[in-house]
Write a structure and sequence with these properties.
Number of strands: 13
Strand order of the largest sheet: 2-1-13-12
Radius of gyration: 27 Å
Largest sheet: 4 strands, mixed
Number of helices: 9
């Protein structure tokens, strides 16, 4: 993300250090300036390709693989509207193991039933009556009319238990399905980022496109 933060403009904040003079400022990054993909790109799937995060891959690994530049990891994150990589990116296996052990207390508890899901049920013509993977009670059943055989059918024993481990693993696996901006659109996004990060002349505290200064009320007190 170092490349991203280089683009974030600075903000001169009044120094609160013990030995600071009344007119001293400290430059900091203006983290209120947040980059994003504009709507006409973000909402158009033709700008992206589907990508499956493999193993312990990080955004920088994927950026290097796709764009030959690991510092473009921010493009991967913005393409998926990821703000907190700690919770929105799939955990490395070692971290996942630790997390599950802390959450459930033991390996045995991880194998306990979390909930039940349906198995797929079809009628005699192959039409799906009950989709696979619906969360239901353990004794869920279904009654439906099968017109091909002119019969009212009852299907029982159509649930399967999902363990705590399986539940958590699915959450992590879902995070692995991301979108990657196609390389030919990189320059558009880079130009957009440069423009949105620049301060506009005439705005409050403007010094330059990359620097603003906070008002120092101490000078007037």
């Amino acid at each position: 993300m170092s490349n991203y933060f280089k683009q974030v403009p600075n903000f001169e904040y009044v120094s609160r250090l013990p030995d600071a003079k009344i007119s001293d400022y400290i430059p900091v990054k203006n983290l209120f300036k947040k980059g994003y993909l504009r709507d006409d790109i973000f909402q158009d799937l033709t700008f992206f390709t589907k990508y499956k995060v493999q193993g312990d891959d990080r955004p920088d690994n994927i950026a290097y693989s796709l764009y030959d530049d690991a510092s473009l990891d921010w493009v991967i994150l913005l393409s998926n509207n990821i703000i907190n990589i700690q919770t929105e990116w799939p955990m490395p296996q070692a971290d996942l193991d630790r997390y599950l052990l802390e959450k459930y207390g033991s390996y045995e508890a991880q194998e306990e039933i979390h909930h039940y899901e349906t198995i797929e049920v079809k009628n005699s013509t192959g039409v799906v009556v009950v989709k696979k993977g619906l969360t239901v009670e353990s004794d869920f059943s279904v009654i439906f009319y099968d017109w091909m055989i002119d019969s009212l059918e009852t299907k029982q024993d159509i649930t399967t238990p999902i363990s705590n481990y399986e539940y958590e693993l699915k959450i992590e696996d879902d995070k692995r399905n991301i979108f990657a901006l196609k390389p030919r659109y990189l320059n558009i996004v880079k130009d957009d980022m440069e423009e949105m990060m620049a301060y506009k002349k005439g705005s409050t505290g403007y010094i330059s496109e990359t620097l603003k200064r906070a008002e120092n009320i101490r000078l007037y007190s």
